[in-house]
Amino acid sequence: MPHSSFFSELRRRKVLQSAAIYGAVAWGVTEVLVTVVEQLFLPQWVATLAVIGFVVGFPVAMFLAWTFDLTSEGLQRTQVTSRRGAASIAVSMILLVAGTAGLFFLIKPALQHQQAVSQTVVIVPNSVAVLPFENAGSVPTDAWLSEGLSDELRDQLGRVTGIRIAARTSSIAAREQRLDALEISTRLGVANLVEGSVRRQGNRLRVSVSLIEGASGLAIWSETYERGPNELLNVQLDIAEQITSRMLPGAAQLTAEPATRDATANELMLLARHYEQQVRERQDFDRETLLEAVRLYRRATEADPESALAQSRLASALLFLGDLEAAEAPIFKAMSLAPKLSKVQNTLGEYYWARGRTKEAGAAWAYAIELNPNDAEAMSNLAWWRWTRIQEEGAMEMYERALDVDRLNLERYADLGSFLALERTADEAREVVRKVEELFDGAAAYRVIAALYSYLGDVDKSIGWTLRAQKLEPSNPSHTEKLAEYYADIGDFETAMALDPEGIGILFKMRRYDEMIEFAEFAMLDQPNDMRIRSLLAIAHNAVGNYESAIHVLSDTGLPDSVLNGWRTIEEMDAYHALVNALYGLGEIEMARELARWREDWGHTDSQDWWVNLRSACDHLILDNENHARNLLKKAQQSLHLAWDPILRDSPCFRPVTDEPVYQATVRYFDERRVMLRERLPSTLAQFGVSL
User: What total number of domains does the chain contain?
Assistant: First the structure.
């Protein structure tokens, strides 16, 4: 048979054997070369050229194997023993082409991997991610030891000049995703990893820790410590010194000052931090757990009154609890002890922010970053601070820096995506959405994606993603509340009310002000400090002409005094807007103009979002700058984010221009957008495979 004759000839000439050897060598060399290129930061074309060389060389090698034999007398031309030899050559050419294609696809994945790494990943020298330590003991409640040790080690290494450290949230996320060493290294952009375990047996501790090279997965250093009670602090200090000395050989500063030198204070802080993180990372606020963290932090400050970090962490927990008065003493005590600690400056910024002293808050956060370029939290805080001042480029820089340090933190992507959607371009924001979909899974990620689509004006997609989140967490009430808001945004009030019949925000968007006022006043009995409820209530009073009531509602907030140094929250900006409108509606024109003028001078005048533009248009109408106000109304129509009807329809400042074409066009634009979204919703939900 022709085929059997041909394959016999291939075997005789050792072509198949040569092809197998060639393919194995090409694949092996390519894999090694890709690794070398990554580690030595060589240009990507080095690996590409090698691949091209192997592919081009394959048919040449096979031709030589077919034509020549290697004998004891040297290279000899192979003798044709079959009458079909000439025909076999044609068939061989076909197989050579097929083999060449096969070889290309064999080594293509390695090349693609190298290309992807070279395009998206930058491994920072002298960088490390401290992964959460494993609780290797039999008692689950001992998790605070393993968590606390890795957290403290991360913080201490982060304070060493010359070391770049991945943020806590990203390190935890990488471990939870069960990535291998190379994957963690490339995703976080770090050269090294630290992993370990903690086991408590009676009053003895066994701590195992390793410093691992991310690219190879090989241990650079490892150690196991067996210690008695009250020796955990010494273990922490030694681990930090060993890791630092290997990452920065010959450096003058081998260790940073630990949080405390007192063993008792150290363990109290570890346990307090465990409780605090539980609250911060939960969806629902747990006051009792946070109070326990505060109690433990207080005991730590008593055990070591000179620990600036103990004082700072106590202040931070109190601020999170909402107790500004109690937070004042520990934060300023921390400042007196260690004003050049980044964490102290970050907490000081939070304190100033909560007090309405926003200029000082911004300065503190900027200084925190100067002290520690690894402080992603301070970067995120400063980004928001700059955003509120319409310092777009400065805000963008901070958001990007925070994400570079904290690459697997979902919240960082949410912050950046929100900024891009509201202040930059839809394409940039959609790229963030794509990245979140790629990197994260689960209900929390779905909620972020839903929010970003809302900012982009695709509220139908927001509903789809929220329904997906609800399927994963059917008992979480926040999903129902968000769904109600999204349905109200597109004007489907029947569905919104069915989902959340007592939602104050829903009544607001429906412009059912009398009911809204009744519900809001009742809610304020239990939540007197809720600025969102207070600002919505003031806006409702303005809409029905109760201007004195609006001013009364706002008087307890300290407005405008609390914001004269800068905006803190969106709700506070709404409240200030309501105050200006209340004074204007009451006939206090000069006072309203003074506040409107201050607001414009302060800097909130240029934005892509309807929210800023409508409020700025309102200010300019009060100031009799009608032409500028008209231009801002036109600009509001360019926003992707859907405007709330009550702001546009019922703010007293807009009443003089309701008959003007530009005003009517703005109202019509948002109305048409809502109709389009309602009509599109069924097909969107069908694509998502979900239903209400």
Answer: 3
